[in-house]
Write a structure and sequence with these properties.
heterodimer, B: mainly alpha, 9 helices, 0% strand, globular
Chain lengths: 231, 229
């Protein structure tokens, strides 16, 4: 089964790497330098697609968690786990690239803005989920607890966003946020942004597939070990 | 429906009777909350009075100490269930899992409520905080926040009690999810410590009510998967 899987999607990592190589080229050479922010603006092409992928992964995590509780099919648990783990990679990338950009442009590493804080809390929920999984041994129970955590974590994030937004609007914003209108971007920047997004989506897909494959093998090892101890 | 409430009240009665006989969780919660309240005054300076910044510090200290203390209380109430095979019994019983869950939430709310009464009194004494002028509203805020904390806390402590690390994982799971409640409770309490600010706190109380409803409903629905062995 695993051999077939590898055969069917063997081209995926290659494609992802090619698109990524083009995206990096586009980020540095095709896209023009921003007149106001200068070179630091280029990190935007890494930052924004990672954020979209991180939130997309979060959504998939929620869907697979619900599907698991609905069907109790271990495959959905494996997929939820794979999405969460690949998602936390991109979420970490968002949290690292954000401050690197913010320092020269806003003048501070961090501000307690609603979007930043929500992403940080999202990251913490992801990590809590992975720790919960790591500290549980019984596979069925682990899968159920993890799925519950996936659902509760997802429901929580909009409330966190709302509460942080209210919390901060009582204070003046330290800096002016970019209006974020994608329509204002010149074509060359569009090329960089969307090619990076495509590259990251393919990478996410690769990571999640690989992770799911590893988990399936782990499940087989656990099964075999249980069978041996049983006899 | 009557069956639902009889299960719920049976769980509450059992928990509170156990607590009444041993007085384990409540005592340690109260002492721990007092300890945190005292330690914070060393960390931030005495911070007494009713100025804007003093109130902000007082409200923050108060809710952080309640949050920390409730972790200990929750670990105890769920630890008891684990040690005495309570989870297996709950799973084996024909009772509605959501009634069992809500029963647990109510008993946690009662324990936390007693601790909070002491906490507010100590805040008034140690920090000269004006808690009497709007005691009614503060009680409303405390009830809304406590239900939210208990709703999320009961669910997560039922999970963490059965991990390999036992209760150690509870704060890691619980605190990120409780961020909205903490913000809302602190902001609302801050507005009312001076005796005014109904307009400032109204939205926060609404936010907590929304949170409470969402979490009580969601956790009641999924609690049966937590009980399953």
């Amino acid at each position: 089964m695993d051999r077939n899987e590898r055969g069917a999607f063997g081209w995926l990592p290659v494609l992802a790497l090619c698109v990524l190589a083009f995206a990096i080229f586009a980020d540095f050479f095709i896209a023009g330098t921003d007149r106001l922010q200068g070179p630091p603006q280029r990190i935007f092409y890494i930052h924004v697609p990672s954020a979209w992928v991180a939130f997309f992964a979060f959504f998939l995590w929620f869907i697979f968690s619900i599907k698991y509780l609905d069907t109790i099919n271990p495959e959905h648990d494996i997929r939820a786990h794979a999405c969460a783990e690949a998602g936390v990679v991109f979420c970490t990338l968002v949290l690292i690239t954000g401050p690197i950009w913010a320092r020269p442009v806003w003048g501070v590493w961090w501000t307690w803005d609603a979007r930043l804080t929500t992403t940080l809390i999202l990251w913490m929920i992801y990590v809590g989920y992975l720790m919960l999984r790591a500290y549980m041994t019984e596979p069925g129970q682990r899968a159920r607890f993890a799925a519950v955590m996936g659902i509760i974590g997802f429901l929580n994030v909009p409330i966190v966003h709302m509460s942080v937004e209210w919390w901060r609007t009582l204070h003046p914003k330290p800096v002016v946020m970019r209006s974020g209108g994608l329509g204002d971007l010149p074509d060359s920047m569009h090329v960089a942004l969307w090619s990076t997004l495509l590259a990251f989506m393919l990478l996410f897909w690769c990571f999640a597939r690989k992770r799911a494959q590893i988990e399936r093998l782990n499940a087989r090892v656990e099964e075999a070990r249980a069978a041996r101890e049983g006899t | 429906m009557r069956r639902f409430f009889s299960v719920l009240s049976a769980v509450v009665e059992k928990d509170l009777r156990l607590e009444w006989r041993t007085k384990e969780s409540l005592l340690i919660m109260v002492v721990f909350a007092l300890l945190v309240l005292t330690l914070f005054s060393f960390a931030f300076g005495p911070g007494g009075g009713s100025g804007e910044s003093a109130r902000a510090v007082q409200a923050g200290i108060l809710w952080i100490s309640f949050l920390f203390a409730c972790v200990i209380g929750l670990s105890r109430t769920m630890g008891v269930e684990r040690e005495d095979a309570g989870f297996s019994a709950m799973y084996a019983s024909p009772a509605d899992p959501s009634a069992l869950y809500l029963g647990k939430v109510v008993s946690v709310v009662v324990l936390m409520g007693i601790m909070e009464l002491v906490g507010f009194a100590v805040l008034a004494v140690l920090y000269q905080a004006d808690v009497w002028k709007s005691a009614g509203t503060l009680a409303l805020i405390a009830i809304c926040a406590t239900i939210g904390i208990a709703a999320a806390g009961t669910l997560f402590s039922a999970m963490s009690a059965r991990t390999r690390t036992r209760e150690v994982l509870l704060p890691v799971l619980m605190f990120p999810v409780l961020v909205p409640v903490l913000i809302a409770a602190v902001k609302a309490t801050q507005a009312h410590l001076g005796g005014d600010g109904w307009a400032d706190s109204r939205d926060w109380i609404r936010l907590m009510l929304v949170y409470d409803v969402i979490f009580l409903v969601a956790a009641s629905v999924v609690f049966e998967y937590i009980l399953e062995e």
